[in-house]
Amino acid sequence: MDDDKERFLKEFGEHYGYPNSPKNIDQIRSSEFKRLEELVYLDHAGATLYSESQMEMILKDFTTNVYGNPHSQSDTSSSTSDLVRSARQQVLEYCNASPKDYKCIFTSGATAALKLVGEAFPWSKESCFMYTMENHNSVLGIREYALAKGAAALAVDVEEIENQNGHPRNDLSSLKLSQRSAQRRSRTEILEDIPTANSLGSAYNLFAFPSECNFSGMKFSLDLVKLMKENSERALEGSPYSSGQWMVLIDAAKGCATQPPDLARFPADFVAISFYKIFGYPTGLGALVVRTDAAKLLKKTYFSGGTVAASIADIDFVSRREGIEESFENGTISFLSLASLHHGFRIINNLTLNAIDRHTSCLMSYIRKKLSALRHGNGAVVCTLYGDLTKMSSREWGPTISFNFRRPDGSWHGYREVEKLASLSGIQLRTGCFCNPGACAKYLGLSHKDLLSNFEAGHVCWDDNDILNGKPVGAVRISFGYMSSFEDAKKFISFVVNSFVPLPNLAGKGYLSSGKSTPFSSKDVHLKAITVYPIKSCAGFSVDSWPLSSTGLQHDREWLLRSAGGEILTQKKVPEMCLINTFVDLAQGILYVESPRCNIKLQINLDPALSGGVKGEMDLQSQSVMAKK
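== Molybdenum cofactor sulfurtransferase ==
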């Protein structure tokens, strides 16, 4: 055992691994995840991984049994129906929900579960859809249904009120919702047209929040359920939307992997679940756990096969099924996927949720501690972590961490740069805003003006624009799963140190060389080659030595290609960009650009005063313009 692991186990050994399970973490990795030998997988918030024995059991199940369509009347169909009922019960037990009070509706995923609530909720012009800033786009999309029916949409922050000793209270009085903004679809949003509290008394309202933020990893207090259902007037003190009948929706797609909501203690009306986030397989299957009384209020318009008791083709007649599950599950449910749920839950139950939560939490705590301690030679912080850890214990954070890296001068490393370097090091992580625009803007300090300016500059989700106007527009995220190990965490920290914490003896050096006279003094560091990429996403050129600038190699990624319409081009969008060759002649101060698809070789003077700002044009079948970043 190396010294690092020994120190880790001394601090976290009580919670690390699964000593009370049939297999400990090392045995799980060696027998169930042999495919991870050369890979550090740190994107479990995106999708966790299925185990080998899980898939073997599923294959054996499918090759041994015959599952027919549950809408048929055959013996094989009857077996499938029994399996579906068993799967519903397993899901309810996972959330500690009584089958008397809750029903399980299977959907194509958590997004479909959320969409079902949005389109069937009894909205009116007196209704309000309220949601926390930290919410996935799949939750924010419900806003469209609310606004289309004349309801208001309200974004809020959750505040924790501290006691006299500076610690959060442990009762409902510690929670308060702070209004961000109210929206309506039409001009009736002006103050005098907002419905009064008296007219809102009988309206049905919906409050949505995630059990765990998929951006920061912060766990939301489930006391919010009781607060909104029992004391909404206090939670929204002074707001015209504080009255009415409030119903609560929990997006548990991320949180269910380690800590599903306990519905016996916190009786939310709707809970959205995604199974591949829990045990990797199957994808394309989720569930809406809905309180029976709440389901009766949903108003479904569409009907399909399996949802009707009777219908007539040529007149306006349809009688819907009375059962909650049957009336909301359109068509034939994914019954083969449902057959695989049993094997996934078996994996989780053998390890136990408490052990999984402890195991992943200690890895998260270790990484946060290590990243927080990193410093540059001048004492500057290397990593900016998102989330206020000073007010929260480690138990109030899920196994998800988001952050960005800074250079010694305080400038930012782009998250796409981090992602590409990590991939080259065999580390899989996630970057961007993770479909959570509210949390992204909140933690990165991006104002509405910043966001609109970035969009007008061409930035959209999943593009390569990671730094705009000197600010990051997204973050780096790593997340752990039940099969993550200390070795994964250690390899990630080693990657960060090697890639973003310069060696002290490099300070003050102004030139990088691949010759024998290397400035590196460490015997373990050898520079094999230098490649400079003047134009982002285009081919670079190799040299034996090259001058440094304050941001790295001089002229490296200093240019980009922009279409005539202003869109920034990348190889992801235009793969032919890899054919564009570049070379910088430092002696002459000229950038040479050529492509086999162009008849001319472009020469651009590197002196801005001589080149007139716009550096040149090339015809790449899209009349692209090249400009300095």
